[in-house]
Amino acid sequence: MKKVLLEGLAVAVIGATLAFAANALSPRGLHLNEDYFRGTQRPPASAPIANNPSANTNSQTDTVAAELKAKGLQAVDGNRALGLFQDPLYQTESIIFLDARDDQHYREGHIPGAYQFDNYHPENYIATVFPVCQKASQIVVYCNGGNCEDSQFAALRLRDDLKIPGEKLFVYVGGITEWTARSRPIETGERKSGKLRASGK
Amino acid sequence: MELAGVLARWLLGWFFVYMGLNKVLHPVDFLKLVRQYEIVNSPLLLNSIAAALPWFEVFCGLLLLAGIAVRGSALMLLVMLVPFSLVVLRRAMELDATQRIPLCAVTFDCGCGGGEVVICHKLLENCALILLACGLLTGMGRRFSARYSLFQNSPPPK
Q1: Which residue of A has its CA nearest to B78?
Q2: Domain identity same for A95 and A11
Q3: Do B59 and A19 touch (CB under 8 A)?
Q4: Total-model pTM
């Protein structure tokens, strides 16, 4: 029994060492000291209703908007987001959209012209996004919508770490899920790839 | 009986390698899932669990497949399986109370590496894995082992 415990301890120590080393070396690795979920105490409610736009009841949207307000962020709904997208200032990058999702989801489809800003690997995007955010007067951050909080975390990172003024920051609560459900245009691949497709069901 | 032990060792090893790799490839998704259990408040602890646990699962799985430090690896898998099963059950009971559906109708992604699952099935699966790990702890699965015990050379059974 003692030998088994010792063996278990050896496996634990060696395994943990190798595990942390692998994480450090992996390009997908997590930064141990990073607070990825800044500004929140509790995770969102159950996942099953996460990405279904029809489940985005008014009460859920209102709740999210209230949470954003409590954190000093501003919410925009689908109509306002579309208005900002169609505003001529979007073409001059006085208004910009930031997609807070990972590479795979961004490439599968994003709001045309949106910059990517993955909250979990911000170092890959700051050099591109920071100067653009400084020049813009309005910055709309989105993710999947529903229970997705990544847009909030990204907006908080922009405000708290990069010192982007909070009054410029808006969170599109409905996210890409609502955008596509309303059959709005989607761009695939890289930003300004020119590969547009109609979204919706 | 010994063959059954070897098969149990390989099955358990393969399972943890497979599930661990699924999580290794998507560490951010796993991080979000670990967060939902509210086990720890500290970002450092949360990130450490999410960063290291998948790789540790792969490591233990590989040890079992190779037949190295089998009982120690099985013990570590038990140390992970038992408390994790309890937190999954706790989460399922919370959702059961919130959604007002039967416990065995609750589905969510438990962070096991297999996506969204029916939690009753997952808990049954974990019970089976726990039994397999306990079996290995008793000394099963020595045949075809590279080094069954780290601290003692044990010849394989005839």
Answers
A1: A8
A2: no
A3: yes
A4: 0.85
